[in-house]
Design a protein that fits this description.
Number of helices: 7
Strand order of the largest sheet: 2-1-5-6
Helix content: 40-55%
Structural class: alpha/beta
CATH architecture: 3-Layer(aba) Sandwich
Shape: globular
CATH class: Alpha Beta
Radius of gyration: 15 Å
Largest sheet: 4 strands, parallel
Length: about 150
């Protein structure tokens, strides 16, 4: 289902995903929370035509009645696809790749942020994005993903 959303323009999965994620996120919700997606590099965005994490984050924010900032973070350089990479390689490839958007930093200052992604594998992307939110002076950072890759033996 997630791969269909990510690579096959299956936006019909968004509504059920929003509802499921809103229920799962309830314990994370804090007053004045800001919802933000994991960013795509602009070149990948152009190829894909949309950011599936942004679509998830937007609907989630709406259902939860929270503020949404689609460009809180920037992916500053393109990364090769992470498929097949081990944990350490994922963290290495994402080091210093996600940064706060200079014009949006003030929106996160002093506020809790909920980062949204479609899939969590190793946590490297969430880690890089969390560090960027901390540089924006977010008070706390929470994360939610639609799917989690099971540990491989």
């Amino acid at each position: 289902m997630v791969l269909q959303l990510k690579h096959a323009d299956r936006h019909d999965v968004l509504r059920p995903a929003h509802i499921w994620m809103a229920k799962a996120a309830q314990p994370l919700v804090r007053p004045n929370m800001l919802v933000a997606p994991i960013p795509l590099h602009w070149t990948r965005f152009v190829r894909r035509r949309y950011n599936q994490s942004a679509l998830l984050a937007q609907g989630l924010a709406k259902l939860l009645g929270l503020s949404y900032c689609p460009d809180l973070l920037l992916r500053t350089k393109p990364t090769k696809p992470l498929d097949g990479c081990g944990r350490e390689e994922r963290f290495d490839r994402l080091r210093n790749v996600i940064a706060p958007h200079p014009r949006q930093m003030s929106k996160a200052a002093g506020r809790p942020v909920l980062l949204v992604d479609d899939v969590m594998t190793s946590g490297a992307t969430f880690s890089a994005a969390t560090h960027a939110c901390i540089r924006s002076k977010a008070s706390d950072v929470y994360v939610i993903a639609l799917a989690r890759v099971a540990n491989r033996p």
